[in-house]
Amino acid sequence: MNCQNCRTMTEEGCSLCETCEMRFAGTLLRLARDVTPLHDSLDATLHPGGHSPVRIQTATPPTPIRLDVLDLIDMLDATARELWRRLDGIDALDWRKDKRNEDLKATLIACAGHPKLATFADAGFYMHVVDGIARKVDTALDPPEQRREIGTCELCETMLTAGANDQWVTCPVCGREQRAQTVKLRRLKTLCWDDSKRGSAADIAKAFADAGIKVSRKTITMWGQRDKLFRHADGYAYCDVYRLLIGPADLTVMA
């Protein structure tokens, strides 16, 4: 039997493979975590970045609530409760047997830990629906203008974007979930491996900082002034800065 999401072979009676099951449960738990900031972002006087809301002043009075976020919460609530009923085998029309929890966060957590999450018939379909809602929640809490490119997908080379607080990122093409920090390090490795990759002191400092390696623009400029770092016509080489920071070690340590 093949996994309904990635088409790999699964155990008998399983609709999802172990990897997809863990990813599905992880997405449900991430949505449970985002329920509170999502409700907070209903306030139209808050900046759309729900993970770190800030009051804003508008030229015209805002609407009482953000209707797009309200619709998204309703969609998430309906999907979570429908998924819970499917997992427990409860007929949607038989409300007397519906033991649903009225708390959306608790419902999502219960679904994530349900023993039948990978074995019920439509697991792949619900995983696809939940992934779509998760992407919309990410956009609502970290709008596109607050998300930036961090590197390419390991499988399909699609450029990935993430917000400042995102620890995981899901490829919109192949659906692979990857740690944001790993994607950033892989991008930095690509820049440092090729001695033709060059940039300004500010661009290089930002690329290293994104990958968790601290170096300031001022330090890079000072190295150039002291002839520790050669400045090309199009800027400094990423590999030269890396060698000064890390030492004479081979670049393969970044693998």
3D structure, described in words:
By secondary structure, the protein is mainly α. It has two domains: 110 residues, no CATH class; 99 residues, no CATH class. The chain is built from eight helices and seven strands. The strands form three sheets. The chain has a three-stranded antiparallel β-sheet with strand order 5-7-6. Strand 1 and strand 2 form a beta hairpin. It is flat. This is PhnA protein.
Cα gyration radius (Å) = 23 Å
User: What is the overall number of helices?
Assistant: 8
> What profile does the largest beta sheet have?
3 strands, antiparallel
Query: Please, how many domains?
Result: 2
Assembly type of the shown chains? single chain
Number of separate strands: 7
Estimate the mean pLDDT confidence.
82
Protein name: PhnA protein
